[in-house]
Amino acid sequence: MPDVQEKSRTRRADLDTVSRACGTLLASLPRADQRRKGEMYVRGLLTSPGRKTMRNLATSTDDPAAAQSLHHFISCSTWDWTVVRASLARHLDRLLSPRAWVVRSMLVPKTGRHSVGVERRYAPALGETVNSQQSYGLWLASETAAAPINWQLSISKGWLQDNRTRIRATVPADEDGTAGDGAAVQAVLKAAAWGIEPRPVVMDARYSALPPLVEAFTAAGLPFLLRVSGGCTLLAAGVGQGKTRVSAASAEHLLGLARGQRRPVEWIDPASPGARRTSLVAPLQVYWPGTPDARPPGSYAGSAAGSIRTTALGLPLTLLGTWQTYERGVRQVWLTNMTGAGYGPLLRLSRLTRRVETDFSDISLDVGVQDFEGRSYPGWHRHVTLASVAHALRMLGRQEASVGPAGGPGAAHRAGSGA
Known about the structure:
ten-stranded mixed β-sheet, 40% helix, globular
């Protein structure tokens, strides 16, 4: 009997926490019924087992018509998801003290072709072309937690040219197509306009076209740390036998010449809290040719903003290689405009992608971020927005449970939720 009573008290406390948080994060919804349905949807994402269909979400309510009501709220309503995301971003920026903005691609295989943005595209992780929907999420990440705050669908201009498909998916008139890396850039730049403190943009760009990323983030004055392929070509001066010669060579070749500068760096694995690991790291100054209108990368402490200027060779960047202690070949290759940052902090920033992958698998998938069953553009955006709210509540709840009621992130969450 005491166990039953304790579980009942815990459940009531959880419900109260969701209500308080939704009261803050969904305050921009103009009507009371929209705020009520938004909370109902978030609660369903957190509590419904299995795939988050409208029918399953409705089981968390006592309303027999809830499935139809929630469908209308997501796909046909008029509330602005961008304002909710901005509110979530400011809320989490205050509570998490993130160290980076991490960009992560999300690929969802589809059987049909009627959902918004679905087309055949090559998936590097699978090594094949698949019928799929692709989007990019922007995550706030620290060593202990990560949460998505913005999303951008990848929609090609070719897909938008089919007027019947466009009308069926309710794509707005001002959406003219932002595919692939352009969608990743837009996810970052839109969030940068919300008034949250800029952080280094960290992204696995091995399969991306680098020029649009480097040029867009440079023009915006954002610090970045991009994982690149070893085959990307860069300029370097004073390496190899010709110490005064400028060389154009692959990143892997240049780092091979810098192997003698490798130093061990210890880091705590964000994917395995408490696990200490050691990597060998070597930095090398390189140049990105012909980048116009370069701006200093914000006020990030490691960016050495005053020295970031385009030279005759191009934009000065730092090429960072990491090796395992038992390997000869370079394991990872990173490129950054934070030329004043030490290679230890840069390595630890790069490892935040592991934190994002862990929380995506453990939390985002569980709250149904990929489970939208509709086909419309507004419906998809509203679903991933509320899934991001649910992710944040689950993540903060875990932090509260691990820290306890006396203080730390959990206490901050309680205080912030009631703001």
